[in-house]
Amino acid sequence: MKNATTGLAIAACGVAITIAGVSGWLDRGSLYGVSIGLLMSLVGVAVLLSGVRASELTTPDRYVSGVVGLGAVLHLYENLAKGSGPSFAWFAWTMFPYALALAISCIKPTRRAATAGAAAALLVDLWVYHGVFVVPRGSTEPLAFLFAPLWNSLIVVPVGTWAAWLIQRKAPGPIAAH
After folding, report:
1. Structure-model confidence comparison of residues 68 and 87, the more confident one
2. Cα dihedral angle (89, 96, 25, 37), rounded to 10 degrees?
């Protein structure tokens, strides 16, 4: 349990620093803040995973990898074609929820359930893209673009994965076997 608490604390601090960097609150240190925040978040997830027995770890699920690939295509397009210029820090920020889903899919009991979390994050990203670039309804619409990775990381991926895991646990037959 100590690994879980420590891992969550490190990841939460990493997310907070990343938000501060992306928001520009760190002025000239924003790029470093985003980089350090993302690194801390990944370290937090690694510490969290270190508490999982080695026999429960596996390679990422192929379906989750496919959804992550679709998310990467969407965010690369946003970054290169719709943005004011390529930004590795912004791309890393938008891809963090997908990295979280990949990490969750490496744990055998949640392997297939992570597909639902990743797909839900992709749906949120597509909804935000539509609201920002296709049919903007107001000047504050781009704020959703800024905060979507946070919502996806803290709410959408974990809740989507948890709900799918509950359904998978209760389901008879081949769904429960994966």
Report:
1. 68
2. -90
